[in-house]
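Next comes this protein.

***
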Amino acid sequence: MELDGGDTKTLKAGGNVVSDVHIHHWARTCLTYQPGLSLSGVGNLASNNDVHTSPHHGVSIGGNDQTVQYNRIHHTSEDSFDNGRAQPPPAC
């Protein structure tokens, strides 16, 4: 799930919200750099979500003034080399 909004030049908030969503078991073909939740742009909110069971990172945050609060994030980065795996994952 990707939230991207707002104006990075004026820093006007996008105001996008993702809340109370269950995000799990994604990125089974391309194992890396496929976050379950991604925030970019300016002024977006992710709260009260359950994000789990992925081969790489669960949440990616970029841009300005993003709020990530009260999320349950667990069992992520289970298979990726740059997060502790002994062997690199298969290439996409």
